[in-house]
Amino acid sequence: MTKNQTIKKSRLEEAKHFLEEAAEKWPSEFLTREDAVVFSGKAISVGHLANLDSARLGPKGSFFIGRRRVYAKKPFVDWLLSRLEV
User: For residue 22, which of 80, 86, 85, 83 has the smallest C-alpha distance?
Assistant: First the structure.
């Protein structure tokens, strides 16, 4: 493994750890789109999530409560992890 590959792997592991830790501290098992923006540190926007959902590329297992799209925390975190790049 090259030095760059080692660094990338280390950064991905660090990001994974950070997201998993943030998920443990999150006060609910569900996130609205607005919560998802806060959870991600504004790395993803409400509009981008809406666009991904309409293209069926957003987090799996989302549902509506009234007019609000809601994501289960675990699938949302798994989805974020799948999108990580270093």
Answer: 80
| Inter-axis angle of helices 3-25 and 73-82, nearest 10 | 160
**Start-to-end CA span in the chain (Å):** 16
Nearest to 38 by CA among 73, 82, 1: 73
Find out whether 72 and 60 touch, Cβ atoms under 8 Å.
no
| CA atoms within 13 Å, Cβ hemisphere of 61 | 12
How far is CA 25 from each of CA 19, 28, 29, 54, 58, rounded to the nearest angstrom? 10, 9, 10, 29, 23
Q: What is the pLDDT of residues 47-61, one digit of tens each?
A: 999 999 999 999 999
Q: CA-CA distance, 53 to 21, in Å (whole number)?
A: 25
Beta bridge partners of 69: 64
Q: Where are the alpha helices (DSSP H) in the chain?
A: 3-25, 33-39, 46-54, 73-82
